[in-house]
Specification:
By secondary structure, the protein is of the alpha/beta class. It contains 13 helices and seven strands.
């Protein structure tokens, strides 16, 4: 869990405990009223378990605080906006997730991204994307809608050619080398990156392996204007829209981008990765 997420969950738990004690109920008594185990009441109050909307509605009913329902649900929505578990997001497959991201791209004019281990989604070929989606579907045991997800991702790439929108993308060289797909698919993907170097709406920087770094090349993230950051982890995506968090990621992006090469130098790094595939 992130610190922000856990703090918000603990704060919600404290509010639940306040509603219970206001009615002079013990945890055991409330659990009996709701048909729950006492441990569930304890976990919710201490922030060790994330409540559902139904949990919150039951809590306000059991503590005779119906007027608190709207407040609690709003707190939960705010909490969920910070950490969106893949298990929940992928319940209906990858395509709905792609459609949600497309909305954020469409609403943004200045998009900055960092990827350390795979090619940025907005630049992926269909075949490369197909392997990425398949791998994540295997990991999360999610709905298999690979072809629909690929089409949604590729369709979003039309935004690369719209005037008035700029993409500043930086990737670590490892993203060009990680064989998350067969070599021939990777070769086509690298050719695609070479072609992107000529787009006037895209600034593509590559951080070579030998470059000096101010910060470790950690997980990927995207900054949408100055309003939103989406950072990806194995268990969840973090959606951060508070100014302090956005500011931190902006600093990280600038620090990493200072180590990147562009233009002809970036082309040479991509060409070296392409050449290395011949020995695989």
């Amino acid at each position: 869990m992130t610190t922000d997420f856990q703090q918000a969950r603990v704060s919600l738990g404290a509010r639940l405990r306040e509603l219970r004690t206001d009615r002079c109920l013990t945890g055991r008594e409330l659990a009996a009223r709701l048909g729950w185990t006492q441990s569930k009441v304890s976990k919710l109050e201490t922030g060790r378990q994330t409540a559902t909307v139904n949990d919150l509605l039951a809590w306000t009913d059991g503590t005779n605080h119906p007027g608190a329902a709207e407040e609690l649900v709003a707190r939960l929505r705010s909490l969920e906006s910070r950490s969106r578990a893949w298990r929940r997001q992928l319940a209906a497959g990858h395509k709905p997730v792609q459609d949600t991201l497309t909305v954020e791209y469409e609403q943004s004019r200045n998009i900055r991204g960092w990827e350390s281990s795979m090619v940025a989604g907005i630049l992926q070929t269909a075949e490369y994307a197909r392997h990425i989606f398949t791998g994540y579907a295997d990991l999360h045991q999610s709905v298999r809608d690979t072809e629909e997800a690929v089409r949604a991702r590729v369709r979003r790439q039309e935004l690369l050619y719209e005037p008035g929108r700029t993409f500043h993308i930086v990737m670590w060289e490892a993203a060009l080398r990680a064989l998350v797909c067969p070599p021939q698919v990777m070769a086509a993907q690298l050719d695609r990156l070479t072609g992107v170097l000529g787009l006037d709406t895209v600034s593509l920087g590559i951080v070579p392996f030998g470059a000096s770094l101010k910060l470790p090349p950690a997980n990927g993230f995207w900054i949408y204007d100055d309003r939103l950051v989406i950072a990806e982890d194995w268990h969840a995506e973090l959606w951060l829209d508070n100014a302090d968090s956005v500011g931190v990621y902006q600093k990280v992006w600038r620090a990493l981008s200072e180590s990147a090469v562009h233009g002809a130098e970036a082309h040479r790094v991509i060409a070296r990765a392409r050449h290395a595939l011949r020995t695989v």
